[in-house]
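Entry — protein

Goal — C-alpha coordinates:
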Amino acid sequence: MDVETLPLARLSLSMPAELLSQLDAMVAERGLPSRSQMIAELIRHELAEHGEERAGVVLAGTITLIYRTESGRVRQALAQAQQAYLEEVISSQHVFLEDDQSLEVLLVQGPSENLQGLCDLLRKIRGVQQLKLVTTTALLPPLHALTSYTLQDPE
Protein backbone atom coordinates (compact mmCIF):
# COMPACT_ATOMS: atom_id res chain seq x y z
CA MET A 1 0.00 0.00 0.00
CA ASP A 2 1.41 3.39 -1.01
CA VAL A 3 2.00 5.83 1.84
CA GLU A 4 -0.01 8.48 -0.03
CA THR A 5 -3.11 6.23 -0.01
CA LEU A 6 -3.04 5.59 3.74
CA PRO A 7 -5.78 7.35 5.71
CA LEU A 8 -4.51 10.39 7.60
CA ALA A 9 -5.32 11.51 11.12
CA ARG A 10 -4.84 15.05 12.35
CA LEU A 11 -2.86 15.89 15.46
CA SER A 12 -2.68 19.20 17.24
CA LEU A 13 0.12 19.91 19.66
CA SER A 14 1.54 22.81 21.60
CA MET A 15 5.22 23.52 22.13
CA PRO A 16 7.46 26.41 23.11
CA ALA A 17 8.01 28.90 20.27
CA GLU A 18 11.78 28.31 20.32
CA LEU A 19 11.27 24.56 19.86
CA LEU A 20 8.97 25.22 16.90
CA SER A 21 11.63 27.48 15.36
CA GLN A 22 14.18 24.71 15.74
CA LEU A 23 11.78 22.20 14.17
CA ASP A 24 11.18 24.54 11.22
CA ALA A 25 14.95 24.93 10.76
CA MET A 26 15.38 21.14 10.74
CA VAL A 27 12.58 20.74 8.19
CA ALA A 28 14.24 23.33 5.94
CA GLU A 29 17.73 21.82 6.34
CA ARG A 30 16.46 18.37 5.38
CA GLY A 31 14.42 19.74 2.48
CA LEU A 32 11.18 18.20 3.68
CA PRO A 33 7.89 19.55 2.37
CA SER A 34 6.22 19.94 5.78
CA ARG A 35 6.51 19.82 9.56
CA SER A 36 4.15 16.85 9.50
CA GLN A 37 6.62 14.73 7.57
CA MET A 38 9.43 15.59 10.01
CA ILE A 39 7.28 14.90 13.07
CA ALA A 40 6.11 11.58 11.58
CA GLU A 41 9.77 10.60 11.00
CA LEU A 42 10.69 11.46 14.59
CA ILE A 43 7.72 9.50 15.93
CA ARG A 44 8.54 6.46 13.78
CA HIS A 45 12.10 6.51 15.12
CA GLU A 46 10.93 6.60 18.75
CA LEU A 47 8.30 3.90 18.17
CA ALA A 48 10.89 1.60 16.59
CA GLU A 49 13.21 2.10 19.56
CA HIS A 50 10.38 1.66 22.06
CA GLY A 51 9.09 -1.52 20.44
CA GLU A 52 12.36 -3.38 20.04
CA GLU A 53 11.86 -6.98 21.10
CA ARG A 54 14.52 -7.28 23.78
CA ALA A 55 12.48 -8.77 26.60
CA GLY A 56 14.64 -10.55 29.13
CA VAL A 57 17.93 -9.57 27.50
CA VAL A 58 20.65 -8.06 29.68
CA LEU A 59 22.01 -4.88 28.10
CA ALA A 60 24.70 -2.33 28.89
CA GLY A 61 24.49 1.28 27.86
CA THR A 62 24.04 4.89 28.78
CA ILE A 63 21.14 7.11 29.73
CA THR A 64 21.76 10.75 28.85
CA LEU A 65 19.58 13.39 30.52
CA ILE A 66 19.20 17.14 30.05
CA TYR A 67 17.26 18.83 32.83
CA ARG A 68 16.56 22.18 34.46
CA THR A 69 18.41 22.80 37.71
CA GLU A 70 16.35 25.68 39.06
CA SER A 71 15.90 23.84 42.33
CA GLY A 72 17.43 20.94 44.20
CA ARG A 73 14.14 19.12 43.83
CA VAL A 74 15.05 17.78 40.37
CA ARG A 75 18.48 16.49 41.45
CA GLN A 76 16.93 14.88 44.54
CA ALA A 77 14.25 13.15 42.43
CA LEU A 78 16.92 11.91 39.99
CA ALA A 79 18.98 10.53 42.88
CA GLN A 80 15.93 8.72 44.31
CA ALA A 81 15.14 7.20 40.90
CA GLN A 82 18.73 5.98 40.56
CA GLN A 83 18.65 4.52 44.05
CA ALA A 84 15.49 2.60 43.15
CA TYR A 85 17.54 0.97 40.36
CA LEU A 86 20.79 0.64 42.30
CA GLU A 87 21.70 -2.71 40.72
CA GLU A 88 21.38 -1.25 37.20
CA VAL A 89 23.15 2.11 37.67
CA ILE A 90 26.91 1.51 37.53
CA SER A 91 27.99 5.17 37.65
CA SER A 92 26.89 8.68 36.81
CA GLN A 93 28.55 11.86 35.60
CA HIS A 94 27.00 15.31 36.06
CA VAL A 95 27.95 18.69 34.59
CA PHE A 96 26.29 22.09 34.74
CA LEU A 97 25.36 23.64 31.40
CA GLU A 98 24.40 27.17 30.44
CA ASP A 99 20.94 28.61 31.04
CA ASP A 100 20.31 26.79 34.33
CA GLN A 101 20.51 23.33 32.74
CA SER A 102 22.44 20.20 33.63
CA LEU A 103 23.66 17.18 31.71
CA GLU A 104 23.84 13.80 33.42
CA VAL A 105 25.07 10.54 31.89
CA LEU A 106 24.36 7.25 33.62
CA LEU A 107 26.30 4.07 32.83
CA VAL A 108 23.78 1.25 33.19
CA GLN A 109 23.55 -2.51 32.82
CA GLY A 110 20.68 -4.88 33.49
CA PRO A 111 17.61 -6.59 32.07
CA SER A 112 16.02 -4.53 29.29
CA GLU A 113 12.76 -4.23 31.25
CA ASN A 114 14.60 -2.74 34.22
CA LEU A 115 16.47 -0.22 32.06
CA GLN A 116 13.21 0.80 30.41
CA GLY A 117 11.59 1.08 33.84
CA LEU A 118 14.40 3.39 34.98
CA CYS A 119 13.96 5.53 31.86
CA ASP A 120 10.21 5.71 32.41
CA LEU A 121 10.75 6.79 36.04
CA LEU A 122 13.29 9.44 35.03
CA ARG A 123 10.99 10.81 32.28
CA LYS A 124 8.26 11.44 34.85
CA ILE A 125 10.45 13.83 36.83
CA ARG A 126 9.35 17.39 36.25
CA GLY A 127 12.26 19.36 34.83
CA VAL A 128 13.69 16.54 32.70
CA GLN A 129 13.73 17.93 29.16
CA GLN A 130 15.50 15.21 27.19
CA LEU A 131 16.32 11.58 27.85
CA LYS A 132 18.07 9.11 25.57
CA LEU A 133 18.87 5.45 26.24
CA VAL A 134 21.58 3.89 24.07
CA THR A 135 22.24 0.17 24.60
CA THR A 136 24.38 -2.71 23.42
CA THR A 137 24.25 -6.43 24.06
CA ALA A 138 28.00 -6.39 24.85
CA LEU A 139 28.28 -6.42 28.64
CA LEU A 140 30.65 -5.08 31.26
CA PRO A 141 32.84 -7.78 32.81
CA PRO A 142 31.67 -8.89 36.26
CA LEU A 143 32.70 -6.38 38.90
CA HIS A 144 33.03 -9.05 41.59
CA ALA A 145 33.73 -12.74 41.41
CA LEU A 146 30.82 -14.97 42.32
CA THR A 147 32.94 -16.92 44.80
CA SER A 148 32.93 -15.88 48.43
CA TYR A 149 35.63 -13.52 49.59
CA THR A 150 37.98 -14.34 52.42
CA LEU A 151 39.00 -11.41 54.58
CA GLN A 152 42.76 -11.10 54.68
CA ASP A 153 44.50 -10.29 57.94
CA PRO A 154 46.50 -7.09 57.25
CA GLU A 155 49.57 -8.43 59.14
The first strand starts at residue 58 and ends at 68. The longest helix spans residues 35-50. The chain has two domains: 16-50, 58-136. Helices lie at 17-30, 35-50, 72-84, 112-123.
